[in-house]
């Protein structure tokens, strides 16, 4: 696509990257076929091609309006379009650049500002989030439906974690909301890894991966959190940690991007690149291990919801299904498994209408094979789908851990 960036856009730190991405799009429109917002709304400007065109206009200096912002806000950042695109357009990077420019030019109404600031103030702080979640559970019937649906129905308490007995060590990103909403997930992962001869080292100073701030257009704050995590993990990396394991694919996708996002930071570029090469989703660690040593005979009927951040961002579609089948679980067929469930980080709170439509469509697809339980690999999807009060939704590693002999 021909582009002619404005002088202002040319001065952006990521101007060259934006121009390269814009030029890589040949406007073929294949991506529209798999875009969830285009499927629901049928508006070209709510498709990847339309949004790319809007960002091109913004960067070429044309007027930016609240309507432009609304079309960009409605994007789930699910990256389904990147999987479909035959030209390898790095849509999410262009979207990040475009959203930041629009954010500076279009002031948001007070209600939106308060919601976004509130989310940024609470979600990345695990202790505050846990305290608010406990209070909210006590007042559940008084809360608006969007918030009620975010509270876990029957969270499984965390089982004890194993002692650090093994020479093989990995780090684990504990996450910010997962410890409160699904407290047993990381414990179950540590217990299964222990049975495979791998210990999980704690890095207490590490915190939120930064994705919440970054995707709410507080990009510098998101990068600050990335730098803090790098500092927190570095001593264990130098001591030989094999991997930084994520049990939430949303966090994993962002940690994998640290290297790219910090490539122009002279103090952190090298370390960030190393962290990105060490970042592993839990399934990547498990699939390379001799799983028969676990002695598992999974006899439950499961439907797997593959999060967009696992299949489209980390390109690990089919990996969890493969591990669960090796362990004897039976998996039901899930139509349209490439489509987003509508969770998308904080999207279910900022765009509830579209989010709930996508959730209900996804649950219909997941339940079509009559599974006992739906399993997934990202806390956002887990909470969002479980909040409908239909088939229970859990992290897949909890089912594996429960089946340990
Ligand atoms: S993003 Fe890719 S699939 Fe979509 S219009 Fe551009 S080149 Fe075609
Ligand atoms: S990231 Fe998802 S919602 Fe956004 S344009 Fe691409 S396919 Fe559509």
The percentage of residues in β strands lies in 5-15%
Q: List bound small molecules.
A: iron/sulfur cluster
Shape: globular
- What's the CATH topology name of the domain at 295-402? Rossmann fold
How many beta-strand segments? 8
Second CATH tier, the architecture of the domain at 295-402: 3-Layer(aba) Sandwich
The whole-number mean of residue pLDDT values reads 94
Structural class: alpha/beta
Percent helix, as a range, is 40-55%
Distance between the termini: 58 Å
Tell me the name of the CATH class of the domain at 295-402.
Answer: Alpha Beta
Low-confidence stretches: none
Biggest β-sheet: strands ordered side by side in the sheet:
2-1-3-4
Give a short account of the largest sheet.
4 strands, parallel
> If you compute it from the alpha carbons, what radius of gyration comes out, rounded to the nearest whole angstrom?
21 Å
Number of helices: 24
């Amino acid at each position: 696509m021909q582009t002619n960036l404005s002088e202002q856009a040319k001065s952006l730190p990521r101007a060259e990257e934006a121009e390269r991405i814009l030029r890589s799009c040949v406007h073929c429109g294949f991506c529209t076929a798999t875009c969830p917002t285009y499927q629901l709304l049928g508006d070209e400007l709510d498709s990847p091609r339309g949004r790319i065109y809007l960002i091109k206009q913004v960067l070429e200096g044309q007027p930016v309006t609240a309507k432009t912002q609304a079309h960009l806000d409605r994007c789930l950042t699910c990256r389904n379009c990147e999987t479909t695109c035959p030209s390898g357009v790095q849509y999410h990077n262009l979207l990040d650049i475009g959203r930041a420019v629009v954010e500076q030019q279009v002031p948001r109404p007070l209600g939106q500002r308060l919601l976004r600031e509130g989310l940024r103030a609470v979600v990345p702080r695990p202790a505050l989030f846990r305290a608010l979640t406990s209070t909210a559970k006590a007042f559940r019937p008084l809360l608006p439906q969007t918030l009620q649906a975010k509270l876990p129905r029957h969270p499984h308490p965390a089982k004890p974690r194993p002692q650090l007995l093994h020479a093989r060590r990995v780090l684990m990103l504990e996450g910010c909301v997962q410890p409160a909403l699904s407290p047993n997930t990381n414990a179950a992962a540590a217990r299964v890894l222990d049975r495979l001869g791998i210990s999980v080292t704690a890095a207490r100073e590490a915190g939120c991966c930064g994705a919440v701030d970054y995707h709410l257009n507080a990009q510098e704050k998101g990068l600050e959190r990335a730098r803090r995590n790098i500092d927190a993990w570095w001593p264990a990396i130098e001591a030989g940690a094999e991997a930084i394991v994520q049990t939430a694919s949303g966090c994993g996708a962002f940690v994998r991007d640290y290297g790219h996002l910090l490539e122009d930071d002279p103090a952190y570029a090298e370390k960030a690149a190393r962290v990105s090469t060490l970042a592993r989703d839990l399934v990547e660690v498990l699939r390379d291990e001799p799983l028969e040593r676990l002695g598992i005979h999974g006899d439950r009927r499961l439907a797997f919801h593959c999060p967009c951040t696992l299949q489209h961002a980390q390109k690990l579609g089919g990996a969890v299904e493969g591990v669960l089948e090796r362990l004897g679980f039976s998996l039901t067929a899930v139509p349209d498994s490439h489509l987003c469930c509508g969770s998308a980080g904080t999207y279910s709170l900022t765009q509830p209408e579209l989010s709930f439509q996508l959730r209900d469509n996804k649950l219909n697809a997941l339940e079509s094979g009559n599974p006992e339980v739906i399993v997934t690999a990202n806390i956002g999807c887990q909470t969002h789908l479980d909040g409908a009060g239909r088939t229970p939704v859990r992290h897949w590693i909890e089912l594996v851990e429960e089946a340990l002999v």
